Automatic annotation (TrEMBL):
Gene3D superfamilies: 3.40.50.920, 3.40.50.970. It comes from Acorus gramineus (Dwarf sweet flag). It catalyses: N(6)-[(R)-lipoyl]-L-lysyl-[protein] + 3-methyl-2-oxobutanoate + H(+) = N(6)-[(R)-S(8)-2-methylpropanoyldihydrolipoyl]-L-lysyl-[protein] + CO2. One of its GO terms (molecular function) is branched-chain 2-oxo acid dehydrogenase activity. Its cofactor is thiamine diphosphate. This is 3-methyl-2-oxobutanoate dehydrogenase (2-methylpropanoyl-transferring).
């Protein structure tokens, strides 16, 4: 089943690359001699697939435009840390990831990149061209064994190297849980800092994608937020992904870096081509407001931004914060915002019970209890396995968030 889904995704990825190159897709030239004859039967499925793809792209056009409005916002931090937007060019998220990996390999001869199928570019094409450029000794495939991938990465990092391991889907990170939690996270502590595996970075795509079902849609970030010794980072956009990933690779601690696969191709913004890093454990206020504070990370920021825009039409001023680093998270920025607005809403795709939103809710309640005007709201995934057909009911959608904003403000 897993191989079937993987190869199906590879084919879909290749088809998407082809559609992007075409542009949006141009009708192939047909000679006059063949115009009167029907197309070959073998080409009918291909043309039907293209037609279906075009319909899907058109149906998502409005949401993509809304997302790009969110992504193309350049904050003061972006200008000081990365340079002006005009210094870059528009790229999508997987291309920004590819740029970061290229820079990491190019600037540090001790950096190695490995994982399932990354030699040919990976399921999502994030490693395209890297094996050809840096050789199979530094960019290479591994067996289908997540525990072995991370165990190898721990040892490689312990020898002073930069080990960049890829777990093909976050849903399959669980076989490696022991190596991450009991080895990587505790390596420095158990030796009294005599040795460590701080050069280990674990990349993995997470979250909903629209058709992933049980085993290709999960958001397991909360499991790792419970583990001292790890850092957990999730970007919201291409510019953020490149700067944060480079910071993670160069950080002296093991980091789990989750990439929102829903945004690999949909999220497009101008990304500087040069080497830059963004600070870890520092949240960013991406929309200022006075009535309620919204906190999220990753792909959910897009949905929350749309809810903020709709709330503004009803006269509600929302302050939106991208946490970026979940562990250690920036409590001070969130606390300062909640002290100003008096209200807090947290949203994430993972199930509500035991999700990281619960930790944020508890911490802010402790710090801001006397300033809160309403209970902290959590709009998250449901406490069920991730569904396929019923995904729209499971997801924390814009309408769910908007309703929670209104009820919290009117409390």
């Amino acid at each position: 089943m897993r191989y079937h889904v993987k190869h199906k995704l590879q084919n879909c990825s290749a088809r998407t690359v082809e559609l992007e190159k075409l542009g949006k897709i141009e009708t192939p030239n047909v000679s006059s001699s063949s115009s009167s004859s029907p197309p070959p039967t073998s080409e009918l499925p291909k043309k039907m697939a293209i037609t279906t793809a075009l319909k899907t792209l058109r149906s998502r056009a409005s949401s993509v435009r809304a997302m790009r409005r969110c992504f193309c916002t350049v904050s003061s931090e972006d200008r000081t840390t990365e340079g002006r937007a005009k210094d870059g060019r528009p790229v999508n998220l997987f291309t920004a990831i590819n740029q970061a990996l290229l820079i990491a390999l190019e600037t540090d001869p001790r950096a190695y990149l490995f994982g399932e199928d990354i030699g040919f570019g990976g399921v999502f094409r994030c490693t395209t061209g890297l094996a050809e450029r840096f050789g199979r000794s530094r960019v290479f495939n591994t067996p289908l064994c997540e525990q072995g991938i991370i165990g190898f990465g721990v040892g490689l990092a312990a020898m002073g190297n930069r080990a960049i391991a890829e777990i093909q889907f976050a849903d399959y990170i669980y076989p490696a849980f022991d190596q991450i939690v009991n080895e990587a996270a505790k390596f420095r502590y158990r030796s009294g800092n005599e040795f460590n595996c701080g050069g280990l970075t674990i990349r993995s795509p997470y979250g909903a994608v629209g058709h992933g079902g049980h085993y290709h849609s999960q958001s397991p970030e909360a499991f790792f937020c419970h583990v001292p010794g790890l850092k957990v980072v999730i970007p919201r956009s291409p510019r953020q992904a490149k700067g944060l990933l480079l910071s993670c690779i160069r950080d002296p601690n093991p980091v789990v870096f989750f990439e929102p696969k829903w945004l690999y191709r949909l999220a497009v913004e101008e990304v500087p081509e040069h080497d830059y890093m963004l600070p870890l454990s520092q949240a960013e206020v991406i929309r200022e407001g006075s009535d309620i504070t919204l906190v999220g990370w990753g792909a959910q920021l897009t949905v929350m931004e749309q809810a903020c825009e709709d709330a503004a039409k009803d006269g509600i001023s929302c302050e939106l914060i991208d946490l970026r680093t979940l562990i250690p998270w920036d409590k001070d920025t969130v606390e300062a915002s909640v002290r100003k607005t008096g209200r807090l809403l947290v949203s994430h795709e993972a199930p509500v019970t035991g999700g990281f939103g619960a930790e944020i809710s508890a911490s802010i309640t402790e710090r801001c209890f006397l300033r809160l005007e309403a209970p902290v709201a959590r709009i998250c995934g449901l406490d069920t396995p991730f569904p396929l057909v019923y995904e729209p009911f499971y997801m924390p959608t814009k309408n769910k968030i908007l309703e929670a904003i209104k009820s919290t403000v009117k409390y």
